[in-house]
Specification:
Elements lengths: L11 H4 L8 E3 L3 H5 L3 H5 L1 H4 L6 E3 L2 E5 H11 L2
Antiparallel strand pairs: 1-3, 2-3
């Protein structure tokens, strides 16, 4: 979908290609990356156990590059 107010804006797939292969996304912020509600983001691991994630000190993080790949595979 085009952004009519900002035609130079990146589309969602282009924005996913940023060079951030080692970046971790906190569980509280993953909804921004995936563009879903906070409530849906809280259920991700329960409903999709295959989603790439790691737990450090009882906190969940999502590796950005692996999460991007997982999302793209879901879209196929």
């Amino acid at each position: 979908m085009k952004n009519y107010k900002n035609p130079e804006a990146k589309n969602i797939l282009t924005s996913l290609d940023d060079n951030d292969d080692h970046e971790l996304i906190k569980q509280n912020d993953v909804h921004h990356f995936i563009r879903i509600s906070k409530e849906d983001a809280e259920k991700l691991i329960d409903e999709h156990p295959s989603i790439p994630h790691i737990v450090i000190n009882d906190k969940v993080y999502y590796p950005k590059a692996k999460l991007r790949e997982w999302l793209l595979k879901l879209g196929e």
